[in-house]
Design brief:
Layout: H1 3-6, H2 14-41, H3 46-68, H4 71-75
Helix pairs in contact: 2-3
């Protein structure tokens, strides 16, 4: 089991923790999509670069959740 879950498993069931992680992953992917589309919409303007940076941040956060959960967790 990934270490991140060990500390909080005492107060939450494993299913709830996995559900939280899945929701967090979906939130990060959704935010990345929004920022990427905004960057494309404002292409050629200064703000586009800011949206691209935010999309990269959200992508890294999504990768964290993907790498934290095991493949079996994704099926729960």
């Amino acid at each position: 089991m990934p270490r991140i879950f060990v500390a909080i498993e005492d107060s939450m069931s494993r299913i709830k923790i996995v559900d939280y992680a899945k929701n967090a992953l979906l939130d990060e992917l959704y935010a990345e999509a929004i920022y990427s589309r905004l960057a494309e919409y404002y292409k050629g303007k200064d703000i586009s670069g800011k949206f691209e940076e935010l999309a990269k941040i959200e992508r890294r956060r999504a990768n964290f959740w993907k790498n934290t959960m095991s493949p079996l967790d994704m099926l729960l």
